[in-house]
Write a structure and sequence with these properties.
alpha+beta, 4 helices
Length: 287
């Protein structure tokens, strides 16, 4: 016997097995079911038409211009780098030429002084005259060559690597590093320092082997104390305790920002501590 329609209270014979919902439907309910599915296309048509209109009205030039600003900034930075190198080499050239001319002037002054001495003494022999003539001729030759042989400038073509600029499609969840603010300050870390830091409203606390150091807003060390304990797993600031909390594998330490004293919390049984964070009342840990 043929199956009946799956629609509630319908006793008609099924004419079709719906592929999408796997229900047996009579001709009437099959048409209703089909009409219901077709009706769902109308709002989808409206939505895709709206998206199409948005795409048509999209200001493509604005998108290009916004990204072109980054290229323009790169170009200006390169111009500045070239101009800086150019000015540096111009200064070197200026210094070299002045040194050359200064040396020539010194030699000329020495000859002038020698001639003046001979005039004042009213004594000059042929050897003096010949020596002066030879020296003047040498200076004359140097002066004639000065403009041509003062210095040589060797330049090489500027090679532009296409890989200096990369333009690629950014995926939906990719982090745009260009939106990050530029580097404000840096801290030089001694070898084997722990790469953790935490802070309160005034200071940053960081391990700078062999010390724990407090840094101010200018990244200057304002206070420090020797850290003789195990490797630090994590640290945080507790406003409730008014202390920095430092975790090692089996211990918790409290750091006083005013005195830089280190106190071991003995009331908590030894256990493995992985990381921590604080609320106003609770120290949370991850083993």
């Amino acid at each position: 016997m043929p199956p009946t329609c799956s629609t509630k209270k319908c006793t008609r014979i099924s004419r079709w097995l719906c592929d999408c919902c796997q229900q047996n439907l009579c001709l009437r309910h099959l048409n209703e079911h089909n009409a219901l599915l077709i009706s769902q296309l109308y709002p989808l048509t409206d939505e895709i038409n709206v998206l199409g209109n948005c795409l048509n009205t999209l200001d493509i030039q604005k998108i290009i211009d916004n990204n072109r600003e980054k290229l323009e900034q790169w170009r200006q930075d390169c111009y500045k780098a070239i101009d800086c190198l150019f000015e540096q080499k111009c200064q070197e050239l200026h210094q070299l030429v002045n040194e050359k001319i200064g040396q020539q002037r010194k030699e000329v002054n020495q000859v002038q002084l020698k001639i003046t001495k001979l005039f004042n003494a009213q004594e000059a022999n042929r050897q003096d005259i010949e020596l002066l003539i030879s020296t003047i001729r040498q200076l004359e030759t140097k002066m004639n060559k000065l403009e041509e042989t003062c210095c040589t400038i060797n330049t090489r073509p500027l090679i532009i690597d296409d890989a200096l600029i990369s333009i690629k499609n950014m995926t939906e969840y990719e982090l745009d590093l260009s939106t990050l603010s530029p580097i404000s300050r840096t801290i030089a870390c001694p070898k084997n320092s722990i790469g953790l830091l935490t802070g309160n409203d005034q200071y940053l606390l960081k391990h700078q082997k062999p010390n724990l150091c407090l840094f101010d807003r200018e990244m200057n060390v304002v206070k420090q104390t020797l850290w003789p304990y195990d490797a630090i797993n994590d640290m945080c600031w507790s406003s409730a305790l008014d202390r920095f909390i430092v975790l090692t594998e089996n211990n918790i330490f409290l750091i006083n920002e005013n005195t830089m004293s280190i106190d071991n919390v003995d009331t908590i049984e030894e256990r493995d501590w992985g990381s921590c964070t604080c609320s106003d009342t609770v120290l949370d840990r991850i083993d």
